[in-house]
Amino acid sequence: xxxxxxxxxxxxxxxxxxxxxxxxxxxxxxxxxxxxxxxxxxxxxxxxxxxxxxxxxxxxxxxxxxxxxxxxxxxxxxxxxxxxxxxxxxxxxxxxxxxxxxxxxxxxxxxxxxxxxxxxxxxxxxxxxxxxxxxxxxxxxxxxxxxxxxxxxxxxxxxxxxxxxx
Length: 166
Hints:
The protein is an alpha/beta fold. It has 5 helices and 6 strands; from the N terminus they run αβαβαβαβαββ.
């Protein structure tokens, strides 16, 4: 896997600096890492070795960012992707319902925090769209696992970017 580009590092540093103010909310959204596709009937597969490596790389990518909360759907592949991030920050992985994204309770719980959300090829862009209030992002291709959605909210201003990290 290639290392992060300078732009990625710069943007993450800006987000981290903004969080020192504790007046903004930042969301990092990723799709779960590579899953085991050997059994097409298994609706809840675990990560492959490559997926485990990617999950640990997500933790390395975010290691210099103070994360307050880590969320995952209740599937092996998402929880296994979220766990190294949470462990690196001494946090527990909290579960969220992908059928009820960015509801009022979630907004209140995460306000002023830096949050990582691990989801799926369809729920991750949908979650990002709910946060920004716009249908900007389409589902992620099933072969792509390296997209990092970053959304920052300060007052009523929302900034968003998607980085490809492979």
